[in-house]
Amino acid sequence: NPGRRRTWVPLVAACILATAHAQAAPAKIAVLEFHNYVKLTEQETAYVTDLVRRQALSLGTRQYFVMTKENILQMLPPGTTLASCQGECEVETGRKVGADYVVSGEILRFGRRKLKVSMKLYETRSGRLLAQESASGLKVESLEGPVKDAASRMFEQLPVVSSGFSEGAIVAPQRATGGGSREEVVVEFAS
Predict the structure, then answer these.
(1) What are phi and psi of 97, to 5 degrees?
(2) Using CA atoms, how far apart are residues 152 and 56, in angstroms rounded to an integer?
(3) From the CB of residue 167, how many other CB atoms can be counted at a distance below 10 Å?
(4) With bands split at pLDDT 50, 70 and 90, how would you rate the model's confidence at 7?
């Protein structure tokens, strides 16, 4: 019946467009406020956390959407702070705010004088730890470069969209295989 065919065509087209849009949506990254164990000021701790957010932004907005502190706070239950949980709770917080990846961190003193920033990157669906990096300096002012470098190394473990494949293809980070060689996993979505 020609009348029935005409009603199915827009429905099928809408499904195809919705699928293509869902595949092209950027992955969300939530950077939680870092835990401050060395009595830095609130502003200093926020600045160190924002350094990591800025490195996430440098990944590209087509592939990743970096959630702001304000985005995250609006999605948390009342009375919950970003710095109030660690470990599995961090992954659960990432899930609650709709993030695909979550970064947590802590600032601590190593020895008598050295400041250390330790950060972890989790994939929220599985809860798997993807990367852990650290940076150090003698003063909070000397942390800027090392934190940016460590965050860049950490974010290298995220899947990226590769221009060498069709749009929407996701290339997983290279992993060492048992024989010392590297393998690359490519997943392509047909549209």
Answers:
(1) -95, 5
(2) 8
(3) 13
(4) low
DSSP 3-state assignment of 165?
Answer: coil
* Cβ-based neighbours of 87, under 8 Å, separated by 6 or more: none
Long-range contacts of 89-96 (CB under 8 A, 24+ apart): 90/32, 90/120, 90/122, 91/122, 91/124, 91/127, 93/30, 93/32, 94/30, 94/32, 94/122, 94/124, 95/124
Global pTM reads 0.69
Place of tokens 């980070």: 173
- Give 97: exposed, middle or buried? Use CB within 10 Å, 0-12, 13-18, 19+: buried
Taking the C-alpha atoms of residue 163 and residue 160, their distance in angstroms, rounded to an integer, is 9
Cα distance between residue 159 and residue 184, in whole Å: 11
| Phi, psi (deg, nearest 5) at residue 135 | -140, 155
Amino acid at 104: S
Q: Please list the alpha-helical segments (H only) found in 25-57.
A: 42-57
Place 86 in a pLDDT band, splitting at 50, 70 and 90: low
Gap between the Cα atoms of 2 and 141, Å rounded: 72
Which pLDDT band holds residue 31 (cuts at 50, 70, 90)?
very high
Phi-psi region of 151 (alpha: psi -120 to 50; beta: other; left: phi over 0): alpha
Strand locations in 35-91 (E)? 35-36, 64-67
